[in-house]
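Researcher: Next sequence.
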Amino acid sequence: MVGRILGSVAIAATLVAGGWSGARAEEIRIGSVVSSTGPASLLGDPQKRTLEMLVEDINAKGGIKGNKLKLVLYDDGGDANAARTFATRLAEEDKVAVVIGGSTTGTTMAMAPVFEDAEIPFMSFAGAIQVIKPVRKWVFKTPHTDLMACEKIFTDLNARKLSKVAFLSGTDGFGKSMRDQCVAAAPKFGIEVVHEETYGPRDADMTPQLTNIKNKAGVQAIIIPGIGQGPAIGVRNYKQLAIAVPLYVSHGVASKEFIALAGEGAEGVRLPAAALLLGEKLAADDPQRPVVLDYTKAYEKKTGQPVSGFGGFAYDGFMIVAEAMKRAPSNKPAAIRDEIEKTKGFVGVDGIYNMSPQDHMGLDLSGFRMVEIRKGDWVAVP
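Model: Next structure:
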């Protein structure tokens, strides 16, 4: 089996004064399956670290209503079959009250039916719109959708008076979904797709595909829908081929590790991203600034690593669930699910969330910022 058990963070349940009606405190078991190793480790590793950090912090402060948390965490290695196996284990053996995880669209979609059948709320970190459209009663997510990423990119292309694009799309779940969403949305923005190429999750060179794009007449911009290391390889090859047209990537690469992997090719690349990437550059009156800076400081102090957008998905997901558990009348999965769905005005690092029975993400396009990579850092595009 791909993946391995990562272990758990726990403090034994004890009698805690101030608990619910003086009752014996419970251990609330939170499940998670992330891709902390393998081709999607760029996403899963900061998510794992974030979840461990947050559980440790809440337990150190007395837990939730006096109830300590136990994080049951598995690594699926980016493999959808392993993810489904771990999901079944969480539901049938570990008896978790809620699940927070799913680093990729593929692993999320493999796990979602398990948690739907088991009636356990599942907060995903995957980007594809299919995670929450159509709405599934027990499934939620924190990242902006791939459709929203397309809309943000197309809006920027319109501002630059560019209309003819080429795609170099990943064949993974997110890459395929974002490509489909972009192609469907393009006419609304006056965008014409003049050429398409694809790459596989383990491709180590994309020079042939990008050479085809370079030689295609009329291409004014390139878009690379994808996650993990693939887009970084494409960006490096783009630089090596000295392609002159602008390049866009998705929010599926929102980390300093992507910039390091892409090297000099990252200079000038644009992407839609969360406020988290801008940190101190956010305006003093930006409502997200305090939470962005608090999470960034805590994460970097705890791990010694730069904060990443993928860890931010985990931060928002965990905190939304934690707030729901504080409001819930019990620790039962159904009670937690109902309160997650009632989330209103939650200020996270990815935006301000307002969920409902019709919307299990709760973000709008205002949560996205267009950023450009300059000298190894993120800069807001006016």
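Model: The two ends are 47 Å apart (CA to CA). The chain is about 40% helix and 20% strand.
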